Automatic annotation (TrEMBL):
Post-translational modification: Is synthesized initially as an inactive proenzyme. Formation of the active enzyme involves a self-maturation process in which the active site pyruvoyl group is generated from an internal serine residue via an autocatalytic post-translational modification. Two non-identical subunits are generated from the proenzyme in this reaction, and the pyruvate is formed at the N-terminus of the alpha chain, which is derived from the carboxyl end of the proenzyme.
Name this protein carries in UniProt: Phosphatidylserine decarboxylase proenzyme
Species, as recorded: Acetobacter pomorum
EC top class named in words: lyase
UniProt remark on cofactor binding: Binds 1 pyruvoyl group covalently per subunit.
Assembly mode: Heterodimer of a large membrane-associated beta subunit and a small pyruvoyl-containing alpha subunit.
Any one GO molecular function term: phosphatidylserine decarboxylase activity
Length: 229
């Protein structure tokens, strides 16, 4: 990867969810610097430094780089950046009414350093979106899938099979954003939401589909192939 390409990943345009944080921290930093100089107050200058630091962190955390999704319709791509913490067969989320037959669930943990924009794993139609309130446990734990606050959506593929993606809040995360609604037709790699400040994204594969990834593997949302459909 070239240096320019690497820099684009770091300084990518921020997601629109960053706007209130950038405006608040930027305004606070400017006001604190100005007041600190006028009043010669080191405390205000320290506030300015802290606010400027948070401004920079938000630019990095909310970065939304472009991704190149595989040009084929027979694969499922990663719905999020991060590393895989578990792969196991479990029943789909009850709130999606997808039955109780166990399917492969691939859980991806996102640290605060990962891109937090979520992307569609495949092309299809969003058939259900279900928000479920819950706890804010460490998102890397297995029980986070059932006990944490989450937003689940089911996706019907062109051939009628179904898969699911679940956005799960973490220890620090306090807001899940989902921009799609039931009935929307989506494409693989398309952005559909974001989770703020550390989280997890679970992918439930259609029955009979096997994972092509392993625990510990690093995912690139919208690009890494997770399964062959």
């Amino acid at each position: 990867m070239s240096l320019l390409a690497s820099l684009k990943l770091v300084v990518a345009r921020p997601h629109r969810e960053a706007r209130p944080f950038l405006l608040a921290s930027g305004a606070t930093a400017a006001l604190a610097y100005w007041a600190g100089r006028k009043l010669r107050c080191p405390v205000l200058r320290s506030v300015g430094h802290a606010s400027a630091g948070f401004f920079g962190f938000c630019l990095y955390f909310f970065r939304d780089p472009e991704r190149v999704t595989p040009a084929r319709n027979d694969v499922a791509v990663a719905p999020a950046d991060g590393h895989i913490v578990s792969i196991e067969k479990v029943a789909p989320p009850a709130e999606l009414d997808m039955g109780t037959t166990p399917v492969w669930r691939i859980a991806t943990f996102l640290s605060v350093l990962d891109v937090h924009v979520n992307r569609m794993p495949a092309a299809g139609t969003v058939t259900r979106v279900a928000y479920h309130p819950g706890l804010f446990l460490n998102a890397s734990l297995d029980k986070a899938s059932e006990q944490n606050e989450r937003n689940a959506l089911s996706l019907t593929l062109p051939d009628g099979r179904m898969m699911a993606v679940v956005q799960i809040a973490g220890l620090v995360a306090r807001r899940i954003v989902c921009s799609v609604k039931e009935g929307d037709k989506v494409e693989a790699g398309e952005r559909f939401g974001i989770i703020r400040f550390g989280s997890r994204t679970d992918l439930y594969l259609p029955p009979g589909v096997e994972p092509l990834v392993s625990v510990g593997q690093t995912m690139v949302g919208g690009e890494t192939v997770m399964a062959r459909l």
